[in-house]
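Sample A.
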Amino acid sequence: MKQDAVELTRMIMRKHYERDLDFVIEQMAEDIMWIGPLKSQFINGLDNFKEILEIEQGIPFQVKDDVYELVGESEEGCVVSGKYTVYNEGVQNYIMLAEQRCTFVYRRQEGRLLAIHIHVSNTADNLLIGDEKYFPFKAGRENYEYMQKLIQEKIGKEKKVCFKGLNKEEYFVDINQIIYIEAGHRKSRLQCADKAMNIRVPIGEIETELPEQFIRIHRSYIINLDYVLNVQYREINMYDGSTLPVPEKRYPQVLKSIQDYHENHSYR
């Protein structure tokens, strides 16, 4: 039973994150209890389990570094625990890297193992509060660093530009690190992932020097499309937590530009 249970758990988790709904459902008992890290993932019964899985079908993930072991066994069934890393490399414009742990309780039924209880949780270490202004939680910093790795793999080397600050200081800025640019009176504010700076260059002059991943969404804002988290009506949410406005007349074209860019610049 040991090898069967361990390999079955490995397959269930991989198929779950690959969104192979049929395979996962076949391994569940009618009275399955599932407790997951999301608020919606406190479920009892196979029908409710199916409903939640169907909602989550749209975004596939991958699993790596998965390790499982048999921690309890009897004639009626067994218990398997494990840990793994789940990640997404930009599919559906979604990026995530997280360490998770799981426990499966199986019941032997009609000659096979069926899961009757599943508990999945994220590790709490990356939720510890740090001392960074832009990343108060370790999870934010870890996901940012992971996103930077994907971006650098896609766009290659740094492209640094020198900007004059308000007090004539010089800032050497990697263009790829700029999240968005905000216009001010005869100046501009560069919002990067780990700092912000005011420079003596109007936003219109900066716009002419920027590469294709930057677009003007508002008279006061230029965004880096690589840092768009999601789009709502007349608003764009960026990965640093900023929400930027989009004028109603400009919104259809901005939305199309974002969609076209991500269709043509997949991380995978």
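Sample B, a different protein:
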Amino acid sequence: VTEKAWNFYPYTITGLTTLFYPPHTHIRIETRFENNNGDNNNVFGDRPTPAESVSHLDILIDPIPDKHYKETEDLSRWVSEKMGRGPLVEGWRKDSTPIMCSYKRVQCSFEVYGFQGKTEDFIHRNIQDILLVGHRQAVAWTDEWHGMSLEDVREYERQIQEQTNSKLKSTQNNNTAAPRPAYSRSMSVTDERSLKKMGVKTMAMSDPSTSTLPHSTVRLNSTPE
């Protein structure tokens, strides 16, 4: 599995591609953060997503798989000691300030006749669960990251990346019974010049008439407090 990530906050792109067997699976997730409660219908500025393809994720009330539930991440019980906020209550998206929405445009491609639709739907459902759990955790863990400087965040990212790569390498070395697919290291860039060199189009640079993105699209609006 090859993963590439471009960080051009408040706009980011994550791409995943499987290469170890045909057909290849491609997943692309675009993210844009805005200080609102998810009411921007054309957040990416190129083409509005059809209403039937938009999912509004509520980190308080939307169900998650039982295996991912933790009482410490239940936002109906969560309280931040540093910020004096929480727990969340019904209607929090209308009343909470400040508030930020993480808009996601998720696209995937699995081009196998007879399996494409079901497989792409399966991928979308799993990504939705991952995003919902991740944004619940982002709020529940507020006291762990609140107050960090940008330098602190970059150092934290570097440490996590090293730990992840080390764990994957150790797993591959210990499992000699069967070969495992290789995992690439992720990379992060934060300036437009680097993005242009990589051939990545940001929202400001994108041209929808020449888009080569996969066909199946769903936009997810996830609104952490």
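Observation for Sample B: The chain has five helices and six strands.
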